[in-house]
Amino acid sequence: MSNAKPYNSTLHKARYQLKGLILFIVPFPVLIAAIIDLIQSHPIEAIINAAAFASFMLSASIARLGFKNESKYIERTIAKAPSTPYKTIAAIFLSVTTGLTSWLSIGDNIVTSILVGLTTFIGFYLYYGFDPRKDKAGNLHFGVSTEEIMQALEDAEVRIDAIDAARRHIANIDINQQLQRITDKARAILKTIEEDPKDLDRSRKFLKVYLDGAKKVTESYAKAKDIEQDIDLKTNFMNVLDSIEQTFDKQQEELKKNNHFDLDVQIEVLKTQLKQEGIK
Predict the structure, then answer these.
(1) I want to staple 34 with a disulfide (CB 3.0 to 4.6 A). Which of 50, 101, 107, 225 is the partner?
(2) In which band, very low, low, confident or very high, does the pLDDT at 10 lie, cut at 50, 70 and 90?
(3) Do residues 81 and 132 touch, judged by C-beta distance below 8 A?
(4) Which tens digits make up the pLDDT trace of 11-30?
(5) Whose CA is closest to 49, among 264, 236, 57?
(6) pTM value?
(7) With 0-12 CB in 10 A as exposed, 13-18 as middle and 19+ as buried, what is 249?
């Protein structure tokens, strides 16, 4: 246990972004061969190599989908196994493409080409592994199903992603950074709920109302014209964000302590503030 390291979301994301890049880089000699064949007036060979390169790129793209799903699966305490085995599909595409390239482009005999394809398949498995096939149940309590917690988390993630998408259209640095903090804190709360879902019902209501509120006002603010000149609206928007951020801090603190605070009161406070600030 002394060697255990805390999960680092930034490092995990960086590793995912780098994973599989070699699958896009290695096939470039095939593209170069296609270009040379075209220059030398070898159209059949050029077509074969161009098709092989396209297939290699398709395999790499499919593998990236698998890596993305695997990244989300690893990150979560409670998760369903990916429904589509993208990594396995990519491994099959890659091995078949490699074998055909060996046979049709390089000129190896059929037995050698098959062995090359099998070696590619095994190499992919040894280096990247295949897709997760078992659901992760985590620390579920009686009365809370995997489907319930996953649906609640996915619904919250959709709202968080919408806030992030709207945030990218807001040029104000201070507001942009505050929205980034809010989404980071929201995801931290989701992680806490995953690890101990017994407060799912109350937290789900809290997250839905607050994330819906943050989503709606952020999208409205991002779409507004000449927003920096509307001092009142800008001030009202920042006041709402302050309220949301402070309440998220309190929610996370109480969840970690396994305490309760009156979520219904907090929700009503937000609703009242949205009306008072004139933000729809």
Answers:
(1) 50
(2) very low
(3) yes
(4) 445 455 677 889 999 999 99
(5) 57
(6) 0.61
(7) middle
